Amino acid sequence: MTGPVDITLQGLEKLAFLAVLAVALVIFANEVYFYVRLLLAFKPENRADKIGKRIRYLFKYVFGQRRLLDQLIMGTAHFLIFWGFIIISFGTLNFIGKGFSAGFSLPFLSSSLRGPFLFLLDLFSVLVLIGIAVAVLRRFFPGSQRMPRGWEASIILILIGGLMLFDLLSDGFNSALQLRHENAAFVGAALGHFIHNLDLSPGSLNILAHLFWWCHLLFFLAILNYVPISKHMHVFTSAPNVFFAHTTPNGKLFTPKLEDIEEFGVTKVEQYSWKTLFDSYSCTECGRCSDQCPATNTDKMLSPRKIIMQVRAHAEKKATHLFKKTTDQFNERLIEDIITEPVIWDCTTCYACMRACPLLIEHIPILVDLRRALVLNEGRISSEGALALKNIEKAGDPWGLGQKARSEWYQGLDIKHISEKPDAEYLFWVGCAGALDARNIKVAQATARLMNRAGVSFAILGEDEVCTGDPARRLGEEYLYQTQAQAVTEMLNAAGVKKIFTNCPHCFNTLKNEYPDFGGHYEVYHSHQLLAEMIADGRLKVNGNPLGEITFHDSCYMGRHNQVYEPARQIIDSLPGAKRIEMKRSRDWSFCCGAGGGRMFLEEHGEHINVNRSREALATGAKTIGLACPFCMTMITDGLKALDKIDEVKVKEVTELLDERTV
Fold first, then answer.
1. How far apart are CA 425 and CA 493, in angstroms?
2. Among positive and negative, which fits the CA dihedral 33, 36, 42, 44?
3. Do 358 and 429 have their domain in common?
């Protein structure tokens, strides 16, 4: 029988519950309001296209935790914490409902589902505790340099661990108090048996059951209100951030309408789209991006993780001024005060950071927009970069050699200009390096010979070919890029071009992924894709001298940007006596040569990226390094020279190796 005192205590406890819950929800709502309001102060951007693809992203990267599982131990720990948190959140909602009414139950928890749900609740509570233990070991023991060790990391692990622990203890004491265990799952029932055998009084059991109930509630509400103001906001934003990730090809940059713009690029943080800010909300600071960044790995100032954190911190600091529209009174500058020029120019746009990010955060566009601001608004670029841009504008190539020089490489070869062979199936886009650089001319010649042997119908543009504009775009000179792109697409369309092959991954990416914005819709292939197919169907017969041990360097713009990894390897494996040895970092995790993002034409300070990569290639013991990119050819060759190994190891484009072994 319940006495008046018990009824009074129950009433007071319920009032306390309602008061605590109301205060927590008001604080949470205020936090959410701040961040939504800040998002609305940024530029609008449509991210609601291709819904089917976005839903697949959710299942793959959020529910499936695909990228986190690239690192098996920590990925598994996070997988357990993630799913445990979701399942236990349902349990907590049910738990809070009981604060309003003792008989409350979530609608889907019918009698038939209650048992399995309680089992999952207990199972994942235990698994989450195991996952947290792994995370603690990973973060705080010696040798774990990547993961941040600050107080924020400790707080969230304590809060989640406490949430699990107090739920189990509350269940256990309730089970012991009732002397029946059918309403508790296996852990709660086991704890109930253990606690019952301690011979505690019913009053003590009741007090402890209520105490742990309150602890569970308070820890849940603490998480609810701590997460939005911490680096752990991704608990709430990760799913929508993945859903709103870019659905365009990896290698495609956004094409702004320059005629509608008064100030180019981004000079103020609010000029970014809301998605850039939402990326910063979602960053977990896990450091996977910086782990893979070639600039970070060679002790440059750039850290992709830091860039994302800086965007959020700067935006939050500026928020009051944005809300009041008094930004003229805000003196902290995005460029220089927050992100310095050396950081902006360190990026090779290799996509390693974006490939590594579990939540599909977009780092490269942030830096490219800053480059656009520097170059287009103020002309701020190094003298080497400025010269390359001037040469593209005046001569049609970054070295300033001129279009006349493009007619020299194919002299003596059976190659026709497209005007002489308008019905050619393919246009061979030679590229600036293939037509003008002495070392890469040999690759272009080998390609032409192979295509002729295989009976491929192709033609070239010869002196009419100019730079696609890729270096200009990556260096921030968007106006020059768009001028080049418009001129080239008009020329290609006038010539009736439908299919293109090229040796240059940068040209490949630009023609395939970025020229459609200018009306250039073509089937674009890297020459290796066609050559591998020709070997497979017998159009090219391979014989000749044994190749021996070879390692292959993946180009960033063929690999991570366009997911083309196998054709070059298929060609290598078809060669007589070839023994392919993979470098430690290959395919998706390949290390950049250092030339991308226009850095081919800029000076590099500190440890050189190409030397780092060349050292890794040498570590395989292979006597030949195979390549698929003219920029990589220059960078790896220079890297071997710097290491004084150029006479010991051959650097060959895979096309050359095939040309030497076919008839």
1. 14
2. negative
3. no
| Whether 8 and 54 share a structural domain | yes
CA distance 353 to 168: 39
pLDDT digits (tens, 9 = 90+) for 284-336: 888 999 999 999 999 999 999 999 999 999 999 999 999 999 999 999 999 99
Of the candidates 535, 587, 534, 582, the residue with the CA atom closest to the CA atom of residue 562: 587
Residue ranges making up the domain that contains 429: 395-535
Residue 194, domain member (yes or no): yes
Distance CA 100, CA 81 (A): 28
Helices (H), 257-363: 274-282, 288-292, 294-297, 304-324, 341-346, 352-356
pLDDT digits (tens, 9 = 90+) for 254-272: 999 998 888 899 999 999 9
Say what the pTM is.
Answer: 0.89
Rounded to whole angstroms, how far apart are CA atoms 294 and 303?
Answer: 10
Domain boundary among 166, 198, 232: 232
Q: In what order do the strands lie in the sheet with 624-627?
A: 578-580, 548-552, 624-627, 650-653
Residue 478 lies in a domain: yes
**Strand pairing report for 458-459 and 578-580:** unpaired
Q: How many Å apart are CA 206 and CA 179, to the nearest integer? A: 12
Q: Which uninterrupted H or E stretch holds 501?
A: strand 499-502
Q: Is residue 247 part of a domain?
A: no
How many domains are there within the chain? 4
φ, ψ dihedrals at 649, nearest 5°: -130, 135
Question: Among 478, 508, 535, where does a domain finish?
Answer: 535
Half-sphere exposure of 149 (CA within 13 A, CB side): 11
Cα distance between residue 332 and residue 310, in whole Å: 12
